[in-house]
Amino acid sequence: GITRHYTFNVRMANVTRLCGTKSIPTVNGQFPGPKLVAREGDRLVVKVHNHINYNVSFHWHGIRQLRNGWADGPSYITQCPIQPGQSYAYDFAVTGQRGTLWWHAHFSWLRVHLYGPLVILPSRSQGYPFPSPHREVPIMFGEWFRADTETVISQALQTGAGPNVSDAYTFNGLPGPTYNCSSKDTYKLKVQPGRTYMLRLINSALNNELFFAIANHTLTVVEADANYVKPFTVDTLVISPGQTMNVLLTASTDPASQAFAMAIAPYTNTQGAFDNTTATAVLEYAATRPPSTSSIQSRRLPLPALPRYNDTAAVASFSSKFRSLATAQYPARVPRAVDRHVLFTVGLGTDPCPSNQTCQGPNGTKFAASVNNNSFVRPRTALLEAHYQRRYAGVLMADFPTTPPRPFNYTGAPPNNTFVAHGTRVVPLAFNASVELVMQGTAIQGAESHPLHMHGFNFFVVGQGFGNYDPVNDPPKYNLVDPVERNTVSVPTAGWVAVRFLADNPGVWLMHCHFDVHLSWGLSMAWMVDDGPLPNQKMLPPPSDLPKC
Ligand code: C2O
């Protein structure tokens, strides 16, 4: 492999959307940020210079960072943030991975503006396990807020409030013609009849799972979170924040029209603010006699049929289709024996409302979120440094509960798992422990799913279902042959999901809901993995420019 150098100058820039201009943090003045490209086996060095008035750090979402948590990026977990005027070089190797990933800021809610694709090409000798597409196109779904950055962030951190709602969904930063004065801000994908395109889809939205479809076209899913899957073809797909998906799109040889709508709309059981919010983009065929672009932009293209916003059955049916390729070349290394069984309840909870606030949680309480009723408290110094120096006192406690403090039961009404404790707690894991983690959703205020993202690892999704997880009858049905391997999985609305992973990566690794509002409310925890006995199983030493708190 080779070493590829990138420079991220983080600075403010004016961007106009929905008829309003605001100053946003950008990388090199670009929004969305630049695409990074590497090939499997390369080393990446991304030198970040922070020229804005906020702290910042960057996460390379899905990169395993073997033994090298120093480059993982979540502020106060693996590093102190890069302060205004400071610099830090993220230096990491891309080994044993290829596919579509992405990068985003990992301080507060800054990822609303600071994100971009991270494409890892397969080694030249390996190529793709399907015919090479004519062209590859990253498409990032996002959200746009009219409010300025400070307002968005302070609303997010004001924990008495409900989730703040964005004003538009976007395709590569563009809202498209369903929003006021946005026709000129329409993403357009140009295709030639009969050619096959690979769309590298990335959901970088803050708080919403999204349905995606293209009118009159089907999509063949070939990869999820940078892991190949057995190809399957659908009309509509679902993608959670944090997830990535490669899909093949074959352009018709005889299209019924010259342009078709691509559409995204949220999947949520939270009725109200998100209804009827569909963003569109245009799939445009090259033709011998093209009409003027303005006629395409002004024409209302027929929307593809999308499931209703609360169509949980459609989501479950879609997520059940994923299978690892599980071939000799791309084996599914599912842990067979399990050393550690962990059961987490994940969901929203409540805190008492401070007397000087009005709170929007149930019965006037303040919203919180938790894993096993622990609402994660952001430490003041980086956990990874504390771990490397074995100096834990006053920084973290290694007593994170690995079973729910009170058994959860959907049939018990009202749900009894809504109280939260607060603390910076981690689960210690022996090097190479094989872990089975079952995550049970605890829905209050209507059902809602939670896209759980794990740093430092991929896991295999061996089972999922609705209602209460049944420790006797569910495990015998697990798929241990070809389960999908991912880094982000949705704990289904009013249901559970079971994953397995091997703790072969020493360090401290964050796991959290990829809805930023839930992360802010504490739906987060960390795994603390020991060094192994061999020299090449130990954490690397910290780089000399590691930021200080
Ligand atoms: Cu993509 Cu911790 O995040």
Structure summary:
6% of the residues lie in helices and 38% in strands. It has helices at 149-157, 293-298, 312-319, 383-388, 516-520; strands spanning 3-17, 20-27, 36-39, 43-50, 58-61, 87-93, 99-105, 115-121, 135-144, 168-171, 188-191, 196-203, 209-214, 219-224, 227-234, 236-239, 244-250, 259-267, 279-285, 340-351, 366-371, 374-376, 421-423, 426-429, 434-442, 450-454, 459-466, 485-486, 488-491, 495-502, 507-513, 524-529.
CATH class of the largest domain: Mainly Beta
> Any idea how many domains?
3
**What is the multimeric organization of the chains shown?**
single chain
Number of strands: 32
Report on the biggest sheet. Answer: 6 strands, mixed
At the fourth level of CATH, the homologous superfamily of the largest domain is Cupredoxins -  blue copper proteins
Q: How much of the sequence is in beta strands? A: 35-45%
- Could you report the average pLDDT, rounded to the nearest whole number? 92
CATH fold-level topology of the largest domain? Immunoglobulin-like
Small-molecule binders here are: CU-O-CU linkage
Instruction: State the end-to-end CA separation.
Output: 34 Å
Structural class: mainly beta
* Physical arrangement of strands within the biggest beta sheet: 10-9-12-17-14-15
Instruction: Please bin the fraction of helical residues.
Output: under 10%
Shape: globular
Number of helices: 5
Q: What is the annotated CATH architecture of the largest domain?
A: Sandwich
